[in-house]
Specification:
Helix content: 10-25%
Largest sheet: 6 strands, antiparallel
Shape: globular
Strand order of the largest sheet: 5-4-3-2-7-8
Number of domains: 2
Number of helices: 10
Distance between the termini: 5 Å
């Protein structure tokens, strides 16, 4: 049986970082004190104590000597680029490492994997969540993390660069994953998994879910599954390759999020069926307005979002043309049409053609589309567009009607919460969302 690994989590990167140690930390080069400031100066970190003593170097490690030791990082940004972005002070157990990264000081937390998971599950899910939902989430979070570590090893062993975009004069196709994290395993924000150390209360139920699934992962042919999850699939989950790199994973494919059979024949890659689907509200596990269920998945700041299964936003011509120019760096002039070029199995757009009076361009994949059409992130790329109040062929308003929240690949958090309330155990929940994957204990 293998030993539980330690992982490194990138927490924040700023020109100046302020932190405070609590406990019996081993300090670099005999420094004294508990409160420090790390600033970047001439390509090095200048570490300054409360009494003014300073030390310079490219890397510093503050090593915890017991599980009770912790450190406080000030002004950590959470929800980066999302509508809930905010700063807060956060406390973490384990070691603190400071590195130089891209002209900033990077703070990295080194922590045992299972302790990391206690925070992730408590951060991602509410303490009111059902035990089966928490256990399912523990397994996929553990699987995803270990799969990313394995992927990083393989990428480092390759001689070629890992590509995440394809661009021509008329098309920009880009996907966002975690391959830019080269100095640590994962980041602490929603880009990877929401990790807030012990700032949030680690619920007893979350800890129990971690303990009861200790070392359990999803496997396919002895390879750890790159398990994914999002808030709400919108009724049907999406294929991995339509959102991220063009690699097919048999366990990350279309899943109808229902125990009813009437929607299984729908092909949402076809525009007429996608339009009808998005404008309707078909039955699905994640089609719920049960506040008790939603509170299991959505933190307080997410619960302010009332519509997620089906939603709509409107823009004026001036608003949308200025927004797309700001987010893409391309001046399309006045917008004439937003047209679907290619959709995935959940109706999420893979490619969107933007036609303006000055430029025409096709963009993708789903997150690139969501970023271009919102100040933060559009809820999903599963949407249709109504072009309204046309004057000489130029719409004066645009209405986007959409489905789901997030990329829609893998486990649907709201759907899984409903399944837990309906009495499904965590094995059944995982079997529903990750077809063909096997649940096995690795350590």
């Amino acid at each position: 049986m293998n030993k539980q690994p330690e992982i490194e989590v990138g927490i924040l990167a700023e020109k100046k970082i302020t932190f405070e140690l609590d406990g019996n930390y081993a300090l670099p080069n005999g420094l004294l004190g508990s409160r420090f400031e790390g600033s970047l100066l001439n390509g090095e970190i200048e570490l300054t104590t409360a009494d003014g003593t300073s030390l310079k170097g490219r890397e510093f490690i503050f090593q915890a000597n017991s599980p009770a030791d912790s450190f406080l990082l000030e002004d950590v940004i959470i929800g980066i680029d999302f509508h809930w972005e905010q700063k807060e002070n956060q406390r973490f157990c384990g070691d603190l490492k400071l590195l130089v990264e891209a002209g900033k000081v990077r703070a990295v937390n080194r922590v045992p994997l299972e302790e990391y998971l206690r925070s992730v599950i408590s951060s991602e899910m509410s303490a009111t969540s059902s035990p089966e939902l928490l256990k399912a989430h523990a397994v996929i979070s553990r699987s995803w993390l270990l799969a990313q570590i394995e992927k990083s090893k393989k990428l480092k062993a390759r001689a070629t660069n890992y590509q995440t975009s394809v661009q021509t004069d008329g098309e920009l196709i880009r996907w966002y994953d975690r391959e830019d994290h080269t100095l640590f395993d994962v980041c602490a924000d929603d880009h990877c998994q929401r990790y807030q150390g012990i700032t949030k209360i680690i619920s007893d139920k979350a800890s129990q879910a971690i303990d009861e699934t200790l070392g359990e992962v999803l496997l396919l042919n002895e390879d750890i599954c790159d398990a994914r999850f999002s808030k709400c699939c919108g009724g049907i989950s999406e294929n991995f390759e339509n959102v991220w790199e063009p690699v097919y994973h048999s366990y990350l494919t279309k899943v109808v999020d229902s125990d009813q059979a009437e929607t299984t024949c729908v092909d949402l890659r076809k525009e007429d069926e996608a339009d009808k689907w998005i404008r309707s509200s078909p039955p699905a596990f994640c089609n719920t307005d049960d506040k008790q269920v939603l509170s299991q998945v959505l933190p307080d700041f997410d619960q302010a979002t009332a519509d997620f299964y089906r939603w709509q936003v409107e823009y004026s011509q001036e608003e949308l043309s200025a927004l797309i120019r700001k987010k893409t760096g391309i001046d399309f002039g006045q917008l004439i049409r937003l047209e679907p070029v290619e959709r995935g199995h959940s109706s999420r757009l893979i490619k969107l053609k933007i036609t303006g009076t000055q430029r025409t361009m096709t963009i993708g994949k789903e997150l690139e589309i969501r970023r271009a059409l919102s100040e933060s992130h559009l809820y999903s790329s599963a949407f249709v567009v109504d072009h309204l109040d046309e004057e000489e062929g130029i719409p004066q308003r645009f209405r986007l009607i959409g489905a789901g929240w997030g990329h829609g690949v893998g486990l649907c958090q709201i759907g899984a919460a409903v399944m837990g309330e309906k009495g499904y155990d965590y094995q059944a929940i995982l079997k529903h969302y990750f077809r063909g994957a096997q649940l096995k204990k690795r350590y």
